[in-house]
Amino acid sequence: MERILKDFIYYLSVEKGLAENTLESYQRDLKKYLGFLKKRGIKAFNATTKKLIVEYLAEQKEKGLAVSTITRNLASIRSFYQYLLMEQIILENPAGELESPKAEKKLPTVLSFKDVDLLLSQPQVKENIGMRDKAMLELLYATGIRVSELVSLNLDNVNLKMGFLKCEGKGNKERMVPLGSVAIKCLQDYIQNGRLKLLNQKDERALFLNQHGKRLTRQGFWKILKKYARKTGINAEITPHTLRHSFATHLLENGADLRSVQEMLGHADISTTQIYTQITRKKIKEIYNQTHPRA
């Protein structure tokens, strides 16, 4: 059995031209599987069954391995059995109909209203950079746009008089998103004061500029956010998507309809937006359990 495994790795290397780290991954996964078969007294691959493979995957789950790791192991086993079938070492593929385990969908991190206020109050608005950072954070929370959309904004994408911005999302789809009064005020302050001080070339159309007067990058924003997140002392992990998640959840908690939130987020499928309803239901249950005398 070990000789056949070596032949398979050689086949992947020579015939398929797989990278060294990929070959090592296959070998590591399949050696573990062979060890399992030997413990079960299996001495030939034609004696393995679908039930045995399922038992092996269940054993991995009991050991606490991540779903992604178990999925990768199954993929290695599938490829191996396809090779065995091709080489006529087995007559039937016991792994052929096995489905990969579904990864559990983790609910996104959402900040409370209090924590959002704390985060958004961190920039020092007396400074040019502080004005910019305050405008960016307020804009993210006011609109729920993605960070990639934020740094791609140009001056003409924002209409402060009408109170909306135009952004280009995934698939080059444009959408209009309303702006709140606080975000409008912060943007006005930044455009009329902070941005002018950061500007180097008059023809630069990027809305948010770095210290060199160029368009701010996603990486640049990520560093800015991490700096303010550390200052707050908030325990939750704050990522560039956190304000987007908080925007959607807070809207739904306050009575917004799902379809409107979908439009503002730029989701092509409403099922993507529905994850936020799970968060609001979870919070409602927590409040009920904490406050109802017979909960």
Short key terms for the protein model shown above:
13 helices, hpI Integrase, Chain A, 295 residues, DNA polymerase, domain 1
Can you tell me about this structure?
- This protein has 13 helices and three strands.
- By secondary structure, it is mainly alpha-helical.
- The protein folds into two domains: 2-86, Tyrosine recombinase, N-terminal domain (DNA polymerase, domain 1); 113-291, Orthogonal Bundle (hpI Integrase, Chain A), CATH 1.10.443.
- It is elongated and about 75 Å long.
- The chain starts with a helix and ends with a helix.
Quick recap:
The protein contains 13 helices and 3 strands; from the N terminus they run αααααααβββαααααα. The chain is mainly alpha-helical and 295 residues long.
List the helices and strands and how they pair.
Blueprint: H1 2-14, H2 20-39, H3 50-62, H4 67-86, H5 113-120, H6 128-143, H7 147-152, E1 158-159, E2 164-168, E3 174-178, H8 181-198, H9 218-232, H10 242-253, H11 258-265, H12 270-273, H13 275-291
Antiparallel strand pairs: 1-2, 2-3
- Overall tally of structural domains: 2
Query: Number of DSSP strands?
Result: 3
SS field, number of helical segments: 13
Structural class: mainly alpha
Low-confidence stretches: none
Report the biggest beta sheet as strand number plus sense, adding barrel if it closes. Answer: 3 strands, antiparallel
Return the string of H and E elements.
HHHHHHHEEEHHHHHH
Compute the separation of the termini in Å: 58 Å
CATH class (first level) name of the largest domain: Mainly Alpha
Query: How do the strands line up in the largest sheet?
Result: 1-2-3
**Molecular shape:** elongated
CATH-derived architecture of the largest domain: Orthogonal Bundle
Query: Overall pLDDT, averaged?
Result: 89
Q: Kindly provide the radius of gyration, computed on alpha-carbon positions and rounded to a whole number of angstroms.
A: 27 Å
